[in-house]
């Protein structure tokens, strides 16, 4: 055994960052918030696995008589379940369910787990926290500061859009995509928010999606489109954050397999992650191979009820927070124009390329229903 002096022993004990020890005072190890936070990068990340999705409540509800499932009481239970899942959204108003007197159903089907989280399917790697870019700012990030790593990273991802003339060089709050009130200033480009390892505070202007929904929304039965999402009594301004399209994060193969089933079944909740920025640098966009799909059928929140419109008032934007993997963004829903009180919230189910390249073809399966969005420029089909 090697004999080491007390001084050497202390030096040796100072080595491992994995336990978060920053320094020793009077021989006692001190864990500061900074050193604790840095050490978290080295621990296995915490995340939800799709195989652990709980479904006992749904199973129990589905064996009850229809008279119970279609009662006021069942509706109250549904609303309560939503409320319980909102503990990560301190400013989110409760969600109400209205059947509008259409049909017999008081609630949407008891077929999914209400959650704001992403649930990682088989073969999907855990969040990559080790490679997260984080700033060392104090208080609120200053977007103009050359020392803010998060501002720098956002600027890099905006560059192609600025070079293409799609965005001006600056705007209020740039290079962050939000203004000081958290309103989205630049639509259609990926968002990189500050994360758990950043030094800035919770009210940093680069933290919006992670602070949760603030606008009232309701789940309402429609005449021709099943259930939908409607604004509350307040007008929602353009650029407002609505929610995360939560659900199971699946490999493309699993998504494809489920898609075949849903096409026959007649309803689909799949969203393929194939944003434009993932194809940057490819000679031909068609060479891009999808890696992941989000499925909100078995798990999701109110956003799974967002219907399609050919003249949408919302858009889904890629948002990166706690996973450095560029192929695994969160799907953040934002308004792209002012939404009137009680207006239905919708996004377009078409990718840009499907519309521009005329891929809208008649298909046989039950999922290819005629579009009932009712807009003047309706294309007549959903997919
Ligand atoms: C993601 S779900 C939307 C929520 C769905 N309405 C429900 O009740 O669960 C997608 C399905 O809603 C229906 N849908 C959405 N938008 C529609 C539209 N514009 N016209 C007709 N049906 C629509 C289709 O059945 C589609 O497969």
TrEMBL record:
Pre-SET domain segment(s): 133-212
What is the protein's given name? SET domain-containing protein
PROSITE patterns attached to this UniProt entry: POST_SET (PS50868), PRE_SET (PS50867), SET (PS50280)
Localization recorded for this chain is:
Chromosome
What Gene Ontology molecular function terms does this protein carry?
A: histone methyltransferase activity; zinc ion binding
**What are the GO cellular component annotations?**
chromosome; nucleus
Q: Where is the SET domain?
A: 215-350
List the SMART domains hit by this protein, alphabetically. Answer: PreSET (SM00468), SET (SM00317)
The UniProt keyword set, sorted, is: Chromosome, Metal-binding, Methyltransferase, S-adenosyl-L-methionine, Transferase, Zinc
Which species is this record about? Pisolithus microcarpus 441
């Amino acid at each position: 055994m090697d004999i080491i002096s007390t001084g050497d022993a202390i030096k040796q004990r100072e080595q491992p960052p994995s336990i978060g020890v920053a320094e020793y005072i009077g021989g006692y190890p001190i864990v500061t918030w900074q050193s604790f936070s840095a050490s978290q990068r080295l621990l296995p990340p915490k995340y939800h696995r799709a195989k652990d999705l709980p479904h006992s409540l749904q199973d129990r509800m589905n064996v009850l008589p229809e008279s119970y499932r279609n009662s006021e009481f069942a509706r109250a239970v549904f609303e309560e379940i939503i409320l319980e899942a909102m503990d990560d959204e301190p400013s989110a108003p409760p969600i109400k369910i209205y059947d509008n007197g259409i049909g017999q159903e008081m609630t949407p089907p008891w077929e999914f787990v209400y959650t704001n989280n992403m649930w990682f399917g088989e073969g999907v790697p855990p969040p990559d926290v080790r490679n997260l870019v984080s700033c060392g700012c104090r208080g609120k990030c200053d977007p103009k500061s050359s020392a803010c790593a998060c501002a720098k990273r956002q600027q890099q991802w905006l560059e192609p859009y600025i070079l293409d003339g799609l965005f001006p060089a600056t705007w209020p709050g740039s290079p962050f995509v939000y203004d000081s009130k958290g309103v989205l200033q630049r639509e259609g480009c990926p968002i990189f928010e500050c994360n758990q390892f950043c030094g800035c505070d919770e009210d940093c202007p680069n933290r919006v999606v992670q602070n949760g929904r603030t606008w009232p929304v309701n789940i309402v039965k429609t005449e021709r489109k099943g259930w939908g999402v409607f604004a509350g009594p307040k007008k929602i301004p353009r650029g407002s954050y609505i929610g995360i399209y939560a659900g199971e994060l699946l490999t493309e193969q699993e998504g494809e397999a489920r898609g075949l089933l849903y096409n026959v079944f007649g309803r689909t909740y799949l969203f393929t992650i194939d944003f434009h920025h993932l194809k940057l640098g490819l000679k031909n966009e068609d060479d891009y191979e999808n890696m992941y799909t989000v499925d909100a059928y078995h798990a999701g929140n109110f956003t799974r009820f967002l219907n399609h419109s050919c003249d949408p008032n919302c858009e889904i934007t890629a948002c990166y927070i706690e996973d450095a993997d560029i192929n695994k963004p969160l799907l953040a829903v934002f308004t792209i124009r002012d939404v009137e009180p009680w207006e239905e919230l919708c996004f377009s189910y078409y990718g840009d390329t499907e519309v521009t390249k005329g891929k809208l073809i008649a298909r046989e399966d039950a999922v290819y229903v005629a579009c009932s969005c009712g807009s003047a420029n309706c294309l007549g089909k959903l997919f």
